[in-house]
Amino acid sequence: MDAIVQFCRNALCTLKNFNILSDTFLYDPNVTARYYKFPPPLDQTTPLEVLISVTQFYAFVSVTLAGYRLFKKDGMDKLQLISRLVNARAKSSKDKDEKKKKENTDEDDKIKKSSETVAHRLVAESLLNEGDVATHAFFVGVDVFFIGISFFWLFANSYHVTATDWIGGVQALINALTVAEIGLIFLLYFMFKDAVKMVRKSFKMKEFASNISGTKSTDTIQNITVEQYSWLVDGWTPFWASGSSGKKEDIDAEAKMLTKEEESVAHQLAKAMKKVDADTAERIRAQSKVSLFEGYREYLYFIINFFAFYGYAVSILVYYFQDEKSQPEYIRALFLWLPNDHADWLGNALGDFMWTLEPIIILGSPLIAGSIAKQSLPKEKSD
Question: Which of 32, 130, 150, 29 lies closest to 89, judged by CA?
C-alpha cells in the first residue's frame, strides 16, 4: 500500500511539474471552491493539489508511525528482550554444567552432543546479531520518524498554507525539507551497505552449497554460522527476531521458549550432520541468484534515491542562495549553471520523477525474484 501511495503522490507531482493536462479541471481552483471555500491564499488550491495533499498526509501518518514502530518495537523493546534472554541463557548454561554427565562413545550420541554444542553457539550468536539489528532499527526508526514529520509541511504547502505565517511560512517548509534531506543521507548509507551485503551473500551461498554437498559437509555444519544455518533450513526466524509483545505471560515463558528453540536447532543440525539432501544444495544455489538480483536492486535504489536527494537539495540551496550574482562557483556548478528558477524546477522535477520510478521497482521486483528462483531450480526429470 505504501508503495502504491508513493507512486500516486510523486506521479501527481510530476504531472504538476511538467504541466501535463493543464487544460483540464485539475488545475482550476474554482472547481475546488465549489466544494469548499478556503480563505486567501488557500483559495488558490487546485484539485490536483488536493489529490497530492491526500497522499502527502498519508505519508505523514504512515512514515511517522513506521519510524515510531521501528525505534520502539524493533529497537528498544527488542533490546530489552535480548537482555532478558541473555540473562536467562546464562542461568540455563550454569544449570546444565552442574548436571553434566560423562561422554558416551556411541556415534549417534557424538552427533547429538556435537549438534547441541553448535546449536548452543548459534543461539548465542543469533542473540548478539539481533541485538545489533535492534540497535540499527532504533537509529533508523528515529531517522524515519523525523522524515515522516516533515511531510506535514509538504501537506500544508499543497494548500498554500506556507504562504502565510501560520506554521512558520516558507522558512519552516525549507527547514522541514532540510530535516528530510539529512535523514535521507543516513538512509543512502544503509542502502549502499545493504547492496554490498546482498551481493556478497550471493557468493557466500554458492560456496556454502558446494561445501555441504561435498566431502567437507560435516566440517561445514560444525562450523556453520547463523546466516548459513538460515540458508540450510530455508529460513530461520527465532522468536526473539520478531520482538516481544511485552505481555507478562509472554515474558514469563521466554526462558522455556529459548530452550525449545535451541533444542529445535540441535535437532535440525543433527539431521544435517548425517546427510544433507542434494535438493537442499540446489535450493541454496537458486536462492543465491535471487540474492544477487536483490543486491543489484539495492544498488538501483541507491542510485535513484541519490538523484532524488540531489534534486531536492538543489531546491533548498536555491532558497539560501537567491542572489545569483554572489553565488560561489561550487553552488553554480550544483545548479548546472542554470538560473535559480530553472534549477529549482529541475531539482523538484528530478526528485519527484526518481521517487515515481522507485515504487514501480518495489512492486515489480517480487515478480522478477520469483521468476529467477523458479528458473534456477533444477527441472524435475520426466519418467
Answer: 130
Q: In this structure, are residues 353 and 10 in contact, taking their beta carbons and an 8 Å threshold?
A: yes
The CA dihedral of 53, 54, 56, 60, to the nearest 10 degrees, is 130
Angle at 146 between CA 71 and CA 2, to 5 degrees: 80
Give the three cell numbers for residue 217.
559437509
pLDDT value, residue 306? 96
Sign for the pseudo-dihedral over CA of 280, 285, 289, 292: positive
Note whether 383 and 41 are within 8 A (CB).
no
Model pLDDT, residue 319: 94
Please say whether the beta carbons of 180 and 154 come within 8 A: no
Q: Which amino acid, 68?
A: Y
Distance CA 55, CA 57 (A): 5
Q: Are 222 and 266 contacting, i.e. CB atoms less than 8 angstroms apart? A: no
3-state secondary structure of 107: helix
Q: Write out pLDDT tens, residues 364-374.
A: 999 998 888 88
Residues in the chain: 383
pLDDT value for 175: 95
Query: What burial class does residue 380 get, using C-beta atoms within 10 Å of its C-beta: 0-12 exposed, 13-18 middle, 19+ buried?
Result: exposed
d(CA 169, CA 50): 19
Mean pLDDT in consecutive groups of 10 residues from the start of the chain, 383 residues: 92 94 92 91 94 96 95 92 86 57 58 85 92 93 95 95 92 95 94 94 91 71 89 90 77 86 90 82 90 94 96 95 91 94 95 95 90 73 41
**C-beta separation of 5 from 354 below 8 A:** no
With H, G, I as helix, E, B as strand and everything else as coil, classify residue 104: coil
Using alpha carbons only, give the angle 43, 355, 168 rounded to the nearest 5 degrees: 40
- Cα separation of 241 and 78, whole Å? 8
For residue 283, give the C-alpha cell: 535450493
pLDDT computed for residue 382 by the predictor: 39
* Cell numbers given for 28: 482550476
CB atoms within 10 A of CB 256: 11
Whole-number Å distance between alpha carbons of 78 and 242: 8
Distance in angstroms (rounded) separating the CA atoms of residues 307 and 297: 16
